[in-house]
Amino acid sequence: xxxxxxxxxxxxxxIFYQLLQFRDQRRKGGGMEAxxxxxxxxxxxxxxxxxxxxxxxxxxxGGDAQKIARGQQIAQQQYCSSxxxxxxxxxxxxxxxxxxxHAYFVTQLRNLRSGARADMDGTMASAARSLTDEEIExxxxxxxxxx
Length: 147
Fold this sequence. Notes:
Blueprint: H1 12-23, H2 32-36, H3 41-53, H4 65-77, H5 81-84, H6 102-114, H7 123-128, H8 133-145
Helix pairs in contact: 1-3, 4-8, 6-8
């Protein structure tokens, strides 16, 4: 499902925090608010732990090499690896970007840029503000190409 995130191999703390945001109505989308309100914090921790143990999605191969290279360049300029890890694999409370579907990545980054989606501390919204649609598309291609 292109508009749905790949949760496999996400850092457990990242999933837990997202569920908290849905429960507290600070994040909206896909009906997750209603689901999260029924969960205890232990349920959220258990769900997060489960998804964190699943194998990461396979990288998408054969994409537009120029777009992927451009996405890598933008990710370096934006210092994405300083929070998301060297291969954008996520760490601690910061989500895994590698292997995400193109559509989901683009939608979320555009929503962060516009303010339609809030993040934990405003870091991502601030970083996304300067990105063009073309740059977001290139970054999505790059992230999807990573293992």
